[in-house]
């Protein structure tokens, strides 16, 4: 029979390079993001002349190409700086993994001093080492903080990094930030003095439409699949589903990846719309978890509250005697949210911010809202969860535990 792993490796596959259809793969060309690439390149180009770029905050929903574009531009900068002999150093940090000021500074130092270890040293000592590097090399540091809103002591981190430039003489380096977030409201967590220390630009990434998603998938198919193994029907369906999910390229790519895996498992030589349909529920679950896990803490708590209340399955009564299933009243959700926030030792937000978070969650498609109609007592906003409550609850509890 031969070795089991040898048999597995020798199996026929529709893939030529499976990694190229991963959501984390960054292709050389990024279609429909030329404008954003040009803007970020223009902002950072001054570093090649020894000047410090302005800080930049990049916003956009999940799957709109924010991280890919920033990484792509920084990679191009790192390649070109050698020709210009420019003193600059970039560092990309995922704040989901490094979610405190200390962890971010440790990661930064690991990049700047790869042969040294600063574990156990104080945050102020590690921060001084960052500034020492900039001074000694006369280097402008560009720090990309992905999911920046995940940093627990965000205000302290941003204030320290932005004010650190005051301790570096002009022309002897500097520190610039690129903050990446799917939450345009995150800056409201910053203190007034921190905001005043930021000289920042802002860039918003719009969602992709169906035709753009189709072209993106065509590019990935040419890189990841063997020729003529993905039918047009599979491509069209994956693009259509993803366009309905708020223009998320990550969903589109993941759909074709899982569809290709199903084709391999079934011993098929082509991927059709049948495999895409079969992959849809699994991908939706993965995307829901991914989306929930990337939400800012307060939005997670609001969604967690909605999931907890939805699990109680208490129908909403109408004055007509009928009952509305799975619908929650906004005021009751807000009251329960305040209790949940207290339980997790998080500060409560105001009713105004609560409404803003509800709007954000609706934008992501995780909930839907409507005004109370005929048969309801009073005039209130009604909230309904669009995803399975127990999955949301489990996902957020994993995040909290982590």
Tell me what the structure shows.
This protein is of the alpha/beta class. It is built from 15 helices and ten strands. The strands form three sheets. A five-stranded parallel sheet has the order 2-3-4-1-5, with helices on both faces. Strands 8-10-9 form a three-stranded antiparallel sheet. Strand 3 (140-146), helix 6 (154-163) and strand 4 (174-181) form a beta-alpha-beta unit.
Task: Give the gist of this structure.
With 402 residues, the protein is α/β, with parallel strands linked by helices. The protein has 15 helices and ten strands.
Instruction: Note poorly predicted spans.
Output: 318-323
Spatial sequence of strands, sheet with the most strands: 2-3-4-1-5
Q: Radius of gyration, rounded?
A: 24 Å
Order of helices and strands: HHEHEHHEHEHEHHHHHEEEHHEEH
Write the layout of secondary structure elements.
Elements: H1 4-9, H2 34-44, E1 55-60, H3 66-84, E2 88-94, H4 101-112, H5 123-137, E3 140-146, H6 154-163, E4 174-181, H7 192-197, E5 200-205, H8 210-224, H9 232-244, H10 249-265, H11 273-294, H12 297-311, E6 316-317, E7 323-324, E8 327-329, H13 330-343, H14 351-363, E9 367-371, E10 381-385, H15 389-401
Helix pairs in contact: 2-3, 4-5, 8-9, 8-10, 9-10, 9-11, 10-11, 11-15, 12-13, 12-14, 12-15
List keywords for this structure.
402 residues; alpha/beta; Rossmann fold; five-stranded parallel sheet; three-stranded antiparallel sheet; 50% helix
């Amino acid at each position: 029979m031969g070795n089991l792993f040898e048999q597995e490796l020798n199996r026929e596959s529709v893939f030529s390079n499976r990694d190229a259809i991963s959501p984390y793969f960054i292709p050389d060309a990024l279609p429909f993001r030329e404008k954003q690439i040009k803007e970020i390149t223009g902002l950072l180009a001054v570093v090649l002349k020894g000047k410090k770029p302005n800080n930049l905050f990049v916003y956009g929903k999940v799957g709109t190409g924010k991280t890919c574009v920033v990484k792509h531009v920084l990679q191009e900068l790192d390649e070109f700086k050698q020709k210009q002999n420019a003193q600059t150093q970039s560092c990309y940090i995922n704040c989901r993994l490094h979610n405190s000021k200390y962890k971010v500074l440790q990661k930064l130092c690991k990049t700047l001093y790869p042969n040294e270890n600063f574990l156990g040293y104080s945050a102020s000592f590690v921060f001084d080492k960052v500034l020492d590097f900039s001074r000694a090399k006369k280097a402008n540091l560009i720090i990309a903080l992905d999911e920046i809103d995940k940093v627990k002591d965000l205000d302290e981190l941003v204030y320290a990094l932005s004010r650190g430039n005051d301790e570096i003489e002009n022309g002897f380096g500097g520190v610039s930030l690129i903050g990446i977030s799917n939450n345009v409201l995150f800056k409201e967590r910053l203190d007034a003095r921190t905001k005043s220390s930021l000289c920042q630009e802002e860039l918003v990434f719009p969602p992709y439409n169906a035709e753009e998603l189709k072209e993106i998938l065509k590019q990935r198919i040419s890189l990841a699949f063997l020729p003529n193994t993905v039918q047009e029907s599979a491509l069209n369906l994956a693009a259509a589903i993803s366009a309905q999910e708020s223009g998320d390229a990550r969903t589109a790519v993941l759909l074709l990846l899982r569809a290709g895996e199903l084709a391999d498992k079934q011993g098929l030589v082509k991927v059709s719309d049948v495999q895409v349909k079969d992959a849809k529920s699994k991908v939706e679950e993965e995307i829901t978890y991914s989306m929930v896990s990337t939400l800012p803490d307060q939005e997670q708590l609001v969604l967690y509250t909605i999931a907890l209340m939805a699990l109680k399955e208490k129908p909403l009564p109408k004055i007509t005697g009928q009952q509305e299933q799975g619908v929650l009243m906004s005021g009751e959700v807000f009251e329960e949210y305040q209790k949940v926030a207290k339980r997790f030792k998080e500060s409560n937000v105001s009713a105004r911010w609560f409404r803003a978070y509800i709007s954000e969650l609706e934008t992501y498609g995780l909930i839907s809202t409507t005004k109370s109609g005929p048969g309801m007592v009073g005039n209130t906003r009604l909230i309904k969860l669009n995803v399975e409550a127990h999955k949301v609850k489990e996902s957020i509890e994993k995040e909290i535990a982590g």
